[in-house]
Amino acid sequence: MTKHTRGNLAILLFLISSLLVLVTVIFMSFIIDSVSDFLKDNLESRLLATSYAAASLVSAEELAQLNEPADMEKPLFADIRARLIDFGEETGVLFVYYMREGEGGAQFIVDNDQTENQDDLASPVIETEPGLAIAFGGRAATAGLGNYSEGYAGLLSAFAPIFDAEGRVVAAAGVDIEDEHVVTARSAATVMRILLLTSTAFVIISGLFSLRLYQKKEIDLQKRLKQQELMSELSRSFISVAEPSDMVNNALRLTGEFLGVTRVWLSAPTGAAPESCLWAGGGAAAPPGPELSARVNGAFPLTQTGEEHVPILHCDDVSLELAFADMDAFGVKSFVWAPLYAAGVFRGVLSVEENLTTRRWTGSDLQLIGLVGSVIAGAAARDLIDQERLKAVERARSASQAKGDFLANMSHEMRTPMNAIIGMTTIAENTADAGKKDYCLKKIESASTHLLGIINDILDMSKIEANKFDLSPVEFVFEDMLRKVINVVNFRVSEKEQELTVRIDENIPSALVGDDQRLAQVVANLLGNAVKFTPEHGLLRLSARLTGMEDEWCDIEMSVSDTGIGIAPEQQSRLFTSFEQADSGTARRFGGTGLGLAISRRIVEMMGGRIWVESEPEKGSVFTFTVRLLRGQPAAPDTTAAIPLNLSDLRALAVDDTPEALEYFTEMASRLGFACDTADGGRQALELVARNGCYDICFIDKNMPGMDGIELSRRIRETCGDKSVIVMVSGSDRDILSDEAAACIDKFLPKPLFPSGILDCLHECFAFDRASAPPPDDVTTETFAGCRILLAEDVEINREIVTALLEPALLEIDCAENGLEAVAMFSAAPELYDMIFMDVQMPEMDGYEATRLIRASGLPRADTIPIVAMTANVFREDVEKCLAAGMNGHVGKPIDLSDVFIHLRRYLPRT
Question: In the prediction, which pLDDT does 586 show?
Fold first, then answer.
């Protein structure tokens, strides 16, 4: 028996079974209706019998005595009611009552209702319902389902006549029961009938649909098996050692023969000549020309980005679709185009065509053509993948080499300051000359600072590589942040006699919210590089401007320019890459880790900005970066605002050989509203003084060619005496001036100049007596006599350093060598100590555990004594761990004395 015969037999058997089920269901429906009617008729018969029984409980003569509401006081009325109550309880009916015909309707006589709703002679006349009317006519009757009296819905009623001795109807007895059971039974029967018919129809329809799906699935399965055989053959052909063109042509042939189409061909990428990959079936199908190839290729994008899927295109009849109407000119009636992409790049189109007639392409056809296109594209991508693999291997080798070079450079960079530290220590030990010792100590300090910078760069880079580099936003004063950076690099600027100028856009808010330390790190890196790679007497410039503001967000652009050696274009591409340097040889002219720019790029990107460089060899460089910061709310007035002085009559003179410095003075004077003349040298300045008279204040650069600032100050003082306030502007300390030179100068301003510095100078010169100005803050002048601290530190030299540094503060210091000893010393005398400095990593017991034990000891002051971590663990998570253990603060190692004094001021009383 064939599959076709078996399929037809299955359909016939299913139809016969469905017919039998349908007949059975209809027959069961009739049975259900019969049973329902039988139940109803049986109930009505029982109800009629009950009404007759109720009629026999009373005589016509008794009812004749009950006519008026007053008759309800007769004992007979109560007796008849008692009979009805007993009857209702015995028979289980809901209501039993007597009624007679009244004027305009029916009048209740008495019922068995024992509630306030009872019906009796006092009740109003009601409308005579049909069943009751029949009873008044002399025959018993029932009220069927739905024939309810007004106000008595849901009750089944039966009525029986009551005759007198002469056979006349004098009243009727009525009984009521709830129709709940009958209605429920009939509703259930109706629902059952509907469910049977619906279920039967659903089963028959589902069966027919299943048979249809089975037949369709059988057909699809056969076709899919053939497609799988085709794909297997294609796959085998593409993993063979045959030529690529032969493999592609074989794939086109197999596809065309399977689909039975006119032509299958492969176009070339856009702009290339058509490839000779063509299969033509029956009919006169000419090879496609370059115009057709260009038309097909133009339907698809040249690149495939991300996970974007470029769908295949198909048309059943080109004459019916306007977008493809031009294909008829190429002899194409119907087609499917499958684009081929390898590594996201367009490689051509697999075109399957009908040239003689139209064709309706099925989903199976489109799937097959798409799969064939994928196989061909995969073969085309094989060479690309091999090439990418070789490139990846080369990149990995280069990265490994870069890290190896980086480690070699780090070894060189760290050994250089270490060599200086060890060498200068040896020299200092072997000399008795105090001046030579001081010289060695300064070199050791410089080398130590340099070594610490290298270590910090490496740690920052390691955090970036581990994706643990975080920002800590705080509110800060923008100009103060820049001033601190300048103070760090200014010494090196002075050493190389370079000129550094700073320009700050007045529109930048004075207070901002962001990570000021990380921002300062970027500026310091760029300035440090500018100083390093700029020769002596070079020019450096730091500028900051507001480029935009949205809500409370400020977009700030900062740039550092120099006149240094510049950077070649091929080196610029590696500047901001981890473990890459523009010059990675250890014998290069300039030192440094090369990590500063990579770290700076990461910081800038985390602040919502970017960083770039513009440079030419031997023409200097300009490093620019942008950041996005929130506007802050400064507690103190903005120092760049107009000061409460009347400056309109102020006459100032600015003397500097740098045009940019003079331009800056002119801008500041215009902003503050006073007149300022400028001179580019001493001779021109003296001419201005001779022509215009003495100025109220003179800002004079110290280092100028020809006549320096000191000589110019002396000559102005000889001319003007005390009429002019002379302010010396220089990057050097005032201490280097001789007593004679210092006598000519009233104020000293360090370069580069900041707006707040100029304003402070004007305040001091014209707002109050300069002699009353407070002395500069010096932590070494603060003392805390009478206070005792406990220092927990396991390294002896660290204990000596802290003790020596804090000696001028007049503190009493007790030392513990580990956490266990620190807990014991505090427990022995908790009232003795005012503060505890706690190292974290110690033997026996670390600082975390010691702090927790002290806090939980319950001793006096255990909860309140300040405990500050003093440790080399300086990462953000380390600080948070210290605070979580119960410590009040954190001081990093190497120890910065100013940080220590911040905590001392916070927790100890000063003397």
Answer: 33
